[in-house]
Amino acid sequence: MAPPEHETLVEAFQISAAHISAALSATLSDLQSSVHETTATYYAKVADTTTSVASNVAETKASLQAALEEKTKALQERADDATKEITLKLNEFTAQFQQTWTDASGAVCERYAAATKEVYDKAEAAKAQVQKTYEEGKLQLQHQYEAAFKAAEPAAAT
Question: Taking the alpha carbons of 31, 33, 34, 40 in that order, is the dihedral positive or negative?
């Protein structure tokens, strides 16, 4: 049986792991909201711009291209921030418990190792989700950009 201080340490570790999991979920949720907001504002710009596209197609295209690049950059920055946030949480988590476990052994170490693997697996899954969310947002922006010019072609022809 593990000494009582190790059992308390395991409980603290598990609570910290739960906090990390919650932070990962919050980071992903925030990123998804940010992507949705960014694509919605670009969609609004596309809609506003295509109504007046007949007057100057080249100027409109340049304006939408600049907005597309700006929004794509904003998505990339937000995805980078989310990845940094995840890495920071993992580093804090590791630093908090690494020294404390040097004198633990047996079943306590096995539980620690299993819980640590679970936290790192969740972090890797969160990083993959960050990339997927970023790619989906970028794709939505590109589709809106292309749709604007498909809609603009008939307007410019009249």
Answer: positive
120-143: pLDDT as tens digits:
888 888 888 888 888 888 888 888
28 in Cβ contact with 127 (< 8 Å): no
| Cα distance between residue 62 and residue 65, in whole Å | 5
20-33 as b/e: b if 16+ CB within 10 A: bbebbeebbeebbe
- Quickly count: other Cβ atoms within 10 Å of residue 19's Cβ: 13
How far, CA to CA in Å, does 144 sit from each of 41, 42, 79, 98, 151?
Answer: 11, 8, 20, 48, 10
| Nearest CA-CA partner of 155 in 54, 39, 11, 32 | 54
pTM of the model: 0.64
Residue ranges of the domains in the chain? 26-43+57-157
Task: Return the H-helix or E-strand segment holding 2.
Answer: none
Residue 56, phi-psi category: left (phi > 0), alpha (psi -120 to 50), beta (remainder):
beta
